Amino acid sequence: MSSQPLSARQRLIRSALELFTAQGVSATTTRQIAEKAEVNEVTLFRNFGNKHGLLLAVLEESAAFKNLGESLVQRATPPGNVYQALKDYASESLHALERVPEFVRSVVGEADQFPAENRRALGRGLTEANRYVAQYLAAVIQQGDLNTYLPAEKLASLLNGMILGYAVIEFTSEFHELWESRDDFLENLVELFLHGAMSHPEKSATVSLAGSMITREVIDLPAVLVHEILRQAKRLGMQDYALAYILFGAGLSALEIVNLERSHQIYDPQGHFLQITTPGFIRQVPVNQWILGKHYGSYTNNPLIKWLKSRKDAHSCMFLNEAGTPISESEILGRWETWTQGLLTPQGQPPAIAQAQNTWCVEMLMRGMSLENLSILTGCDRTQLQPYAKRAREKAALEQATHLDHKPA
Fold first, then answer.
1. What is the pTM of this model?
2. Cys staple from 138: which of 152, 213, 268, 356, with CB 3.0 to 4.6 Å?
3. Residues annotated as DNA-binding region (predicted)?
4. β-bridge mates for residue 261, sequence order
5. How far is it between the farthest Cα atoms of the chain?
6. Is the Cβ–Cβ distance between 337 and 232 less than 8 Å?
7. How far is CA 348 from CA 39, 152, 284, in A?
8. pLDDT of 3 above 60
C-alpha cells in the first residue's frame, strides 16, 4: 500500500530544511524553496507569510530532538546503565546536529536578524527537548539510581547546554585544542556530569571522579561487621565473595569494579595488583590478603583469583551478571544490599557500599602508609585525604587508650 503524498505545506517545510541545512537561512531564497517543493512562491506566502514564517514552522515541527528525548525517557523504566544512556543521548544529539551544520551556523549567526517569534520558537524547541531529559533524570533519581543536589530540570539544562555548546564550537571554529576528539568530549562530559553534578547513592560519602575521590565524610566500618559482610557474600557464591573481597581488599568503587577486565589483574608470590583505568588516568592498586586483622588467602590464591580460575567463559570483563553480560553498578549495589541485609552500623544505619572504600583507606593509614603513598594509590591529593587521616588518628587514639587501660597503674 503506497504512502499518502505530502501536502504542499509539508513539501515546503521539508525543502526549506534541506536548503537551510545545505546553505544557511540567509543564503536561501523563497524562490529556491518553492522550486524545490515544486510549488509557486504564492503558495509559500499564502501558507507562511514569508521566509521567516517558514523558518518558524521548521523550528516548531522538527521532531528530531523530541524523538531523542522520548527515547531517553523510555530507558528509565526499567532503569539500566545511566552512564551509557546519557552517553548515547549526547552522541545521538550531536549526530542530529552534525547532519545540519549550516542550519546550526545560520541560527547561531543570524538569530539577531530573526523576528522575535522565531527566537521564541527556538527557545520552545530547546525547552521541549530539555523537558524529556529532565523526565528521565527525575525518574532515575526517584528510583534511587542517582543522588543529586540540583533539580532534574537544572541538570537537564546543563547537559543540553554543554552538548549544544560543543556543536557551536565545532561548527564555527577550527584548530582549537579544547578536546582531543568527539569521543573524548563525550566521555568527559558524562563523567563530569554524573560525578560532578550528580553522584551514585552508594558513594554518598565519596564521589569518584576520573580516578580521584572527593571526600565529604569518612565513616568506616568496624572489623566484626566487615568480616560478617564477607562471610555473607561467600555464602552466595564465588563471584559474590570475590566482589566483596576487592571492595574491602582494594578499596575500589562500584564504578571502578564495573570497568575491570580479566587482563587488569597482575599477581605473583610477591603481590597481587589491579590496574584501574579511568579517562586520562591509569593507576595500580594492591589487593590485600589481610583485611582488618583477618587473613583472606595469599597473593596467588584468594577469592578473586579463585573466581577467575573457575570461569569457563571467554568474556573479557572481570565480573558478569546472571545473563553473562558485564555487571553494572546497580547490580553490584543490589548484591551489596543482599550481603548486608539485617546488618546495622554502630550509627544504627544499614552499611553503605561507599563505606568499604572508606574502611580500606583508613586501614591503609592505620597500618602506617603515608598520605603521599595513599595519594598515589587512590589518585587523590593530600587535601582530599585529610579526612581519612583524621579518622585514622581518632582510631589510633582509641586503640592507645584501650591498650593503656589494660596496663596496671
1. 0.51
2. 152
3. 29-48
4. 317
5. 107
6. no
7. 75, 31, 35
8. no
